[in-house]
Amino acid sequence: MKKLKTDELNRVGVEEFKEQEKLPVIVVLDNVRSMHNIGSVFRTADGFAIEKLYLCGITAQPPHREIEKTALGATQSVAWAHFETTLDALASLRKDGYEIIAIEQASGSTMLNTFQPDVQKKYALIFGNEVNGVSDEVMTQIDECIEIPQFGTKHSFNIVISAGIVLWDFFAKLRL
Predict the structure, then answer these.
(1) Residue-wise over 41-64: b if at least 16 C-beta within 10 A, else e?
(2) Alpha-carbon torsion 60, 14, 53, 172, what sign?
(3) Which of 83, 88, 66 is nearest to 75 (CA)?
(4) Are the C-beta atoms of 92 and 62 separated by less than 8 Å?
């Protein structure tokens, strides 16, 4: 077995990426503090070719050196928008017909492994602040809550790990 070199991966360029069909998912970052986490979500969003990334509240915006450290150029390929509040973003998403889903541990949540996305729907997936998670006021506006099953001693996954797990699951269920 031989590890592939970058030029052997046959990746599309930024312009081709912008034109290709996207996974019908918008990722919403609800007041995410760490610019490294923001950059990593950009990179993950590029990897799964999601539609767009919404940066809300205190979530930092490109261009920023600390975001680019982990985004590695994905801020150029992934479409994004900033909203003053997450509630503003949700109002826009609802108007555009998105099903709004929080990724959170909550009463009545659906475990990720049992959730089956509908190929006819568009989804907005909300990932919350590193300490407080998805805000309580945002939780009152969601259509559904998905929880990632966990089996260890820690209370939650890092936001980037959560985004990777959930986006892979949606990609696998909708595209593979």
Answers:
(1) bbbbbbebbbbbbbbbbebbebee
(2) negative
(3) 66
(4) no
Is the four-CA dihedral 118, 156, 54, 72 of positive or negative sign? Answer: negative
pLDDT tens per residue across span 68-127: 999 999 999 999 999 999 999 999 999 999 999 999 999 999 999 999 999 999 999 999
- Give residues with Cβ within 8 angstroms of 29, minimum separation 6: 38, 41, 53, 54, 55, 56, 59, 127, 159
Global pTM value: 0.97
Nearest CA to 146 among 108, 100, 106, 110? Answer: 110
- CA nearest neighbour of 124 among 114, 134, 132: 134
128 phi, psi to nearest 5 deg: -100, 180
Contacts of 131 (CB under 8 A, 6+ apart): 33
CA-to-CA distance for 4 and 18, rounded, in angstroms?
A: 25
Find out whether 50 and 164 touch, Cβ atoms under 8 Å: no
**What phi, psi does 103 have (nearest 5°)?**
-100, 105
